[in-house]
Amino acid sequence: MTDHLSKAEIRKDAVQGAVEATATAVGEVATILTRAVRDVAGALGGLATEVFELRDAARRATLESADDRPGLPEA
Fold first, then answer.
1. What is the DSSP letter of 4?
2. Stretch 33-54: mean pLDDT, rounded?
3. CB half-sphere exposure, 22, CA atoms < 13 A
4. What is the largest CA-CA distance in the chain?
5. How far apart are CA 69 and CA 75, in angstroms?
6. How crowded is the C-beta side of 35, counted as CA atoms within 13 Å?
């Protein structure tokens, strides 16, 4: 005995497969975007840290330079 699927059953299976595939693709894209946002935030945080360190180094160098010059008041 062979099973025959109705047209409605075939359409339901096709729609179900399309919805499942779409959900999987959306989930993958969301994961990619989440990782990208995390990576960008990490890169910007690293840049900010570098800028703060450079600013502090420049400030220290300026103070040391002023200390080395005779006749100038210390900051």
1. -
2. 98
3. 6
4. 108
5. 12
6. 5
Q: At which residue do the structure tokens 């299976």 appear?
A: 13
pLDDT top residue among 68 and 37? 37
Report d(CA 32, CA 20) in Å as an integer.
18
The CA distance from 41 to 47, in Å, is 10
Instruction: Check: CB of residue 66 under 8 Å from CB of residue 75.
Output: yes
Asked if 75 and 63 count as a contact pair (C-beta separation under 8 A), the reply is yes
The string of pLDDT tens digits covering residues 6-35 is 999 999 999 999 999 999 999 999 999 999
Asked if residue 70 has pLDDT above 70, the reply is no
Q: Which residues contact 45 (CB under 8 A, 6 or more apart)?
A: none
CB crowding 42-54: b at 16 or more within 10 Å, else e: eeeeeeeeeeeee
